[in-house]
Specification:
Largest sheet: none
Protein name: DUF599 domain-containing protein
Pfam families: DUF599
Organism: Azotobacter chroococcum NCIMB 8003
InterPro entries: DUF599 (IPR006747)
Distance between the termini: 96 Å
Keywords: Membrane, Transmembrane, Transmembrane helix
Structural class: mainly alpha
Length: 243
């Protein structure tokens, strides 16, 4: 029989999980406003992309890139449904799952009710991921329509200021879609950390903090960010004149 005190570590772990996930999301958004990160640098590249798109007569390659991004979101949305189906299947046979977990080393024995709560919390995480990926897909659809509506090179009634505003608008829509995709990936990261909750709440809290560290290093201190921010160009060596 489990007492109320035995549930306190699990309550602390859930609160810690929510604080880490929500707190890092708010922190990353705030810090990215004045600090180079993957999201802010990619938005600048998207603005350059849209400005160059307006200088091209053919936009087939640009539409293909947006389609590829949309298919990536579609893949994760479909995978999320499969994961949710698996969680619901385990939820229907929770007694057997509890007995199997109890035989593993370092696993804290939990009641059936607590195991079902853990599975429900895990399903909530992936339901959130499904909604973010599907909203990302819709936003990429909007971006594809905007690319199709982009003014052509020879249109004289479109001013340069209107072209610049249009490029910024399309880049913003694509960045919003990319942000939703990023939120969905974060849900996967934290969902994997939640699997440690089935071992014990302390490992769950430790892995949740580890996910925050991994996300921070990748978004603000990764090698790919350094390359995109600044890539040194070798000096041009003049050719020697032949005698």
């Amino acid at each position: 029989m489990f007492s109320a005190d035995s549930y306190l570590p699990h309550l602390f772990a859930v609160i810690w999980f929510a604080l880490c996930w929500g707190g890092y999301t708010r922190y990353a958004t705030w810090k990215g406003r004045d600090t180079p990160c993957l999201a802010s640098i990619m938005h600048l590249y998207r603005e350059d992309w849209m400005r160059r798109l307006l200088l091209r007569d053919s936009r087939i390659a640009d539409a293909s890139v947006i389609g590829s991004l949309e298919r990536s979101a579609s893949f994760f949305a479909s995978s999320t449904l499969i994961i949710l189906a698996g969680i619901l299947t385990v939820l229907g046979s929770s007694e057997r799952a509890v007995s199997l977990l109890a035989e593993l080393p370092f696993v804290q024995v939990a009641s059936r009710e607590l195991s079902e709560i853990k599975l429900l919390c895990l399903s909530v995480v992936f339901v959130y991921a499904f909604f973010t990926f599907t909203w990302c897909m819709r936003q990429y659809n909007f971006a594809a329509v905007l690319v199709g509506a982009a003014p052509m090179v020879g249109e004289r009634h479109v001013t340069e200021q209107e072209r610049k505003a249009f490029a910024e608008r399309v880049a913003r829509v694509i960045s919003l879609a990319a942000n939703q995709f990023n939120f969905g990936l974060r849900a996967y990261y934290f969902g994997l950390a939640m699997l440690a909750w089935f071992i014990n709440p302390w490992v769950f809290m430790l892995l949740t903090a580890g996910v925050v560290i991994v996300l921070y290093r990748r978004e603000f201190h990764s090698e790919v960010l350094e390359v995109m921010v600044y890539t040194p160009t070798p000096p041009l060596v003049p050719l020697k004149e032949e005698k």
